[in-house]
Design goal:
By secondary structure, the chain is an all-alpha fold. The protein is built from 15 helices and no strands. One of its GO terms (molecular function) is protoheme IX farnesyltransferase activity.
């Protein structure tokens, strides 16, 4: 069975059974938490800033924009979500939210978030947020995801923009520092999702999504994971090397990077057809810890620096 075998009207009841929690699920709260962490980090590390109330409203607008992207993704992907164990219980494929309801919800939040950010911060940041939503919903979800095994590589840019948007909220532009934050997430995305795709190959195969293991094979995927990990780890240390992170971050990024490479090496040495996929599962889990730890440390160091400067001023 493939994605084209199930029509939306056959997969879902016609009447919405939605509860408030179902619309919250459409926002992909776990993804929103990562977006918030990285956007706030970009804002805190940037020079300058806004009145605290305007800063809070601006960062909430970014979170709402991320949720809007998630809702549009779930609307469009309902036909393949129902075929995969990881996504089959989402609100649209189960019929708790109608496709029309998810689309209207996503579009409304998209427009609202962009206008709110423009009014609270600046229109450069608002335009950047609009482009991010468009990139995720249209470029990645509607085009790349179903057409190329490089979907995660190119589409991963959408999830990498939030720290740049946060920086733009504070400064009205971008900088080398914000590009480095972008690159950390951009290079992290392929090994993170390819590790997932190794132990979810059957799911992606049923849905007809050309993830790298299904197209190029497990061995090639493991090599790609290792190669991207080699690129990621030094980039993860760059904030310290460039002077916008302190020694605590520097030491932690080296230790975390070494552990990331240890997991990537074990994935590289996995046997084809490894039923347990333990190394891939461990890399997937640790990659989440790695990214959250890096950005949390950057955020804490940046906040401490701001408080110290305020105390001296």
């Amino acid at each position: 069975m493939t994605a084209v075998d199930i029509r939306p009207e056959e997969a879902r009841p016609a009447i919405s059974l939605a509860e408030p929690g179902d619309f919250l699920s459409l926002l992909k709260p776990r993804v929103m938490s990562l977006v918030m962490l990285t956007a706030v980090t970009g804002y805190v590390l940037a020079p300058g800033g806004l009145h605290p109330v305007l800063a809070f409203v601006s960062l909430m607008a970014i979170a709402i924009g991320a949720g809007a992207s998630g809702a549009l993704n779930m609307w469009y992907d309902a036909d393949i979500d129902i075929l995969m164990s990881r996504t089959a219980q989402r609100p649209v494929p189960t019929g708790r939210v109608t496709p029309e309801g998810a689309l209207a919800f996503g579009l409304s939040l998209s427009v609202f978030s962009v206008i709110l950010l423009g009014l609270a911060a600046n229109w450069f940041a608002a335009g950047f947020l609009a482009f991010t939503i468009f990139f995720y919903a249209v470029i990645y979800t509607m085009w790349l995801k179903r057409s190329t095994a490089q979907n995660i590589v190119i589409g991963g840019a959408a999830g990498s923009f939030p720290p740049m948007v946060g920086w733009a909220v504070a400064t009205g532009g971008v900088s080398l520092e914000s590009v480095v934050l972008f690159l950390i997430i951009f290079l992290w995305t392929p090994p993170h999702f390819w590790a997932l795709s190794l132990f979810k190959m059957k799911d992606y195969g049923r849905a007809g999504i050309p993830m790298l293991p299904n197209v190029a094979g497990e061995r090639s995927t493991r090599r790609h994971i290792f190669a991207y990990s080699l690129l990621l780890v030094p980039v993860g240390i760059l904030p310290f090397a460039l002077g916008f992170a302190g020694p605590v971050y520097g030491a932690a990024s080296i230790l975390l990077g070494a552990n990331f490479m240890r997991h990537a090496w074990r994935v590289l040495k996995m046997a084809d057809g490894d039923a347990a996929m333990v190394p891939a599962k461990k890399l997937f889990a640790f990659s989440i810890v790695y990214l959250f730890a890096l950005f949390m440390l950057l955020l804490l160091e940046g906040t401490a620096t701001d408080l110290l400067m305020a105390a001296r001023g």
